[in-house]
What does this fold into?
Amino acid sequence: MSGSEQESAHRTIERVARESYGRLVAYLSSHTGDVGSAEDALSNALVAALETWPRDGVPQNPEAWLLTTARRSFIDLVRHRQVVEASEPTLALLREESTDMILLPEYPDERLKLLFVCAHPAIDPAMHTPLMLQTVLGLDAARIAHAFLISPTTMGQRLVRAKTKIRDGGIRFEIPQEPELPQRLDAVLEAIYAAFGIGWDDMAGVDQRGRDLAEEAIWLARVLLQLMPAEAEVHGLLALMLHCEARRAARRGPDGRYVPLSEQDCRKWSLPLIAEAERHLEEASSRGHSGRFQLEAAIQSVHAGRARGRGIQWNAIMMFYEQLIRISPTLGTRTGYAAAVAEAKGAEAGLAALDGIDPDDISAYQPYWAVRAHLLQRLGKTPASLDAFDRAIGLTEDPAVRQFLLQRRG
Amino acid sequence: MQFALLIFESPEAFAARNADENDPYLGAWRAYYKALVEADIYVGGNPLQPPETGTTVRLKDGKRRVQDGPFADTKEQLGGFTILELPSLDTALEWAARCPAASMGAVEVRPVSPEYKRRVTG
It folds into this structure.
């Protein structure tokens, strides 16, 4: 085989692994709940593909090849564990299925069940997102660990523990029914959004962590939408993320300098992404009830109006935040509301809204201090504003944002 | 529990100490210190003089060995330490990421060992 053919074999493996990883893991683990073994089996199959495809050529149906190979390895792995732990029903099930499996041209997409398992209430909420990123997208523990600011070893251990709980804790691979569905879906959406990174909506110099997983989160949301096309909040979540993603190129100056939303050059925003976001937002609102993600997307949509030459309608943003506070009165929502009030009704009113937040909650919350510092500065209350700037700067992780705030502080 | 943040700084960061009052690195440190105190987690800490002021002592075969400079010859050198009272390693890592030295060097997070201290101090 020539070098270029080898290269194409590697590319095919990469592509199939990327596109089919979650489907294969979900399918292999859906009956046994053994996500860890399913992943091991798939990685064995990928290693086998790396050995044989460049030598023998890429099979006609690469995904089916991976599935068959992974399946064999999976049975071995589970059988091995079964010898130790004796779970005969599982093994019987595997034996029954092992023959039809190979004949199946199409296999069912069980990723939705897998997503619900990852965000199951019996699993530590902090692990929902890492589990999804690993089992549905195939990201390795080290990459997830960096994004979540946890050591790779610890992240690896926590993932293994969570998968053991899924396998042995009786967590069923199923799509929740009413009346649990809304709450369970919420957990899935939250987990996807957590990967995207909080703080994108940028109140006053606030975007911090999670950036490198933004694309993965959008991918997850697209998968979820494919599986639940009728859910308004899924459209809402995707709309929100696309709006924020559309501004990626405008967020930094050529020198790496941080550019806040209000000063971004909207010619650098991606119009196709904005248009796609708007379509999903319309789709969401046509389905009636408004949810958290739709409201957040609506706020971003108002900002996006600037790209079409419209001024920012702060009254509309304030109203969306008011509705948002009723649904989810988080620190982020309340701080965003105060920033919108300041634009709509003046800095004094904005400060009053900030003062309504419990001081115990904000000692380590950077956006609160950033907004407070700007409003105090606008009112000419210098000593108090300097103090608030210091708090914001001291709580900032991103050096570019820190630099921006230091300059504003003066 | 208590965590030590060991601050490793680059030569540039050590040099920034001689800059004027408006230096951004110094400003970032002032703000960080204030945030630690206001969050009520600051226990103590101190900056150290630059590595070239260090002197390392060993006794080998009963003989004194004195070396000019720090113990380890690395690009980034220990520049100070901070002790924080925090509920978990996860929160300690968050505070370490906010430390101005994290983007100009490295911050090592280590739990303080009160058990060992008790065995030593009795």
Q: What stands out?
A: Chain B is about 30% helix and 35% strand. The longest strand of chain B covers residues 77-85. The CA atoms of residues 55 and 68 of chain B lie 5 Å apart.
